[in-house]
Amino acid sequence: MGTGGRSGLRPGKGNAEGVTAGKGKTDEATVTSITAASASCQYRCIECNQEAKELYRDYNHGVLKITICKSCQKPVDKYIEYDPVIILINAILCKAQAYRHILFNTKINMHGKLCVFCLLCEAYLRWWQLQDSSRSIDPDDFIRYAKEWDFYRMFAIASLEQTAYFIGIFTFLWIERPIKVKEKLNFTLLLKALLLSSYGKLLLIPAVIWEHDYTPLCLRLIKVFVLTSNFQAIRVTLNINRKLTFLAILSGLLVESTMVYFFQRMEWAVGSDCAIYKSQDF
């Protein structure tokens, strides 16, 4: 059986039964500790979102058997056998199963790096639009330094606007979710899911380089794609309905738009070209 997708899986996939099978009578304390260790590492079924203690059982000589979910009677995670490229394609198509595999059944520690890189792409786009709208033929070093600080300013503005977007989402979910499930609201996991699902912002640079004549349209499409990915990430992470998820996204956009309006009033924004991307009028 192929194991192409197992490289990123979290540790602790075995269980007490597989360890103690065929070994006769085992010390009770040992069995208890193994069972507790197994239960502490929870996975999710990608089909029904039920918790599972293991994704597959590893027998000797490389023989693996995928665990069947007790709730839906389907494989807990079929993607452990898939090539990473196939998983990425399914994630681009916003399939809930692919998102559950990535968020719950794999160990990915690139949230911070991906966030910084996406912000750099967005800051570069804004800086490029600013330079394009105010070209100068003066080769003076002071002008070059001013342009460099403009890039840092665009990075800070993009960071603040993204923070406002996340705050709007978190605030709405905290207020609207029932009191009995508020204790289970894992904001850390949700933040990681939102950061990972914002990978569509990486397309900003190719949009500027390859589609110069159609940049406004490309920016709108990229924005819609990012919001769709965020929508799916929230729904999968919190296991909530589409209506509540949509309202959470809308709340985030409202807070972000307020921040954009504030920057425009303070004349910190990059101008009308950037306003096309940040208008949220889709």
Write the layout of secondary structure elements.
Layout lengths: L15 H5 L7 H13 L2 E2 L6 E2 L3 E3 L5 E3 L17 H9 L3 H9 L6 H23 L7 H36 L2 H4 L4 H10 L7 H7 L4 H24 L3 H24 L6 H7 L4
Antiparallel strand pairs: 1-2, 3-4
Helix pairs in contact: 3-4, 4-10, 5-6, 5-8, 6-11, 8-10, 10-11
Number of distinct beta strands: 4
Helix coverage percent of residues? 55-70%
For the termini, the CA-CA separation is 46 Å
Relative strand content: under 5%
Q: Whole-number radius of gyration?
A: 23 Å
Which class best fits the helix and strand makeup?
mainly alpha
Please trace the helix and strand order, writing H or E for each element: HHEEEEHHHHHHHHHH
Major sheet characteristics: 2 strands, antiparallel
Assembly type: single chain
| Mean pLDDT figure | 75
Task: Give the strand line-up of the largest sheet.
Answer: 1-2
Number of helices: 12
Which consecutive residue ranges, at least 5 long each, have pLDDT under 50?
11-41, 270-282
Q: Using the alpha-carbon principal axes, give the shape.
A: elongated
